[in-house]
Specification:
- It contains four helices and nine strands, in the order βββααββββββαα.
- By secondary structure, it is an alpha+beta fold.
- Strands 1, 2, 3, 4, 5, 6, 7, 8 and 9 form a nine-stranded mixed beta sheet that branches.
- It is globular.
Length: 180
């Protein structure tokens, strides 16, 4: 078993503004590092000149790149909850990335079991007494998917691999409230 750390990236959109956070945890879910942006609220002129690409620009170029640039701990994998964050990409920055979502599906027969749903989507049964997780990849690369699944299976034996995203979201909401 390797020594992996995970990056949890969350971007929240609220009132025409955006805020992002990135938490790096060890393989037990203990935070090693947490970075966040101040709320990014585009001006009227930015809304006009960027048009339909404004959200993509803010999410990828302003928020995600600035969070990745400052990292002291290198994650084995970055986890997001929104598949749109990784659509068409196998990485965020230089790190492998995947979307993980909790489901209400019935449990699979054994911990660690997977079921392929689509070429970029797999259902995975974690080791805790939980419903399966939906794992969505940005690209249909079997080699990358296998590598990522090995990391997820290993770490899910120690922790609820999706739960830290909830912590990042709560922390970002607290930051946003302090700004108001």
């Amino acid at each position: 078993m390797g020594n992996h750390s995970l990056g949890y990236l969350k971007i929240i959109e609220k009132d025409s503004g955006f805020i992002g956070g990135l938490m790096i945890t060890d393989d037990s879910g203990i935070p090693l590092e947490f970075k966040y942006t101040e709320p990014v609220i585009p001006s009227k002129i930015q809304q006009v000149i960027y048009g339909k690409v404004l959200k993509k620009y803010i999410r990828e170029d302003v928020i995600t790149k600035s969070l990745l640039k400052e990292l002291k701990n290198i994650p084995s994998l970055i986890i997001v909850d929104e598949p749109s964050e990784i659509s068409g990409k196998d990485k965020i920055g230089k790190f492998p990335a995947v979307s993980i979502q909790k489901t209400s599906l019935p449990q699979l027969s054994a911990p660690g079991e997977t079921q392929r749903v689509k070429d970029k989507e797999i259902v995975f049964q974690p080791y805790q007494d939980l419903n399966p997780l939906r794992i969505i990849f940005g690209v249909a690369d079997p080699e990358l998917q296998e590598k990522v699944l090995l990391i997820i299976e290993e770490i899910s034996q120690k922790m609820d691999i999706a739960e830290p995203l909830e912590r990042v979201e709560k922390a970002l909401k607290l930051v946003w409230e302090k700004q108001e």
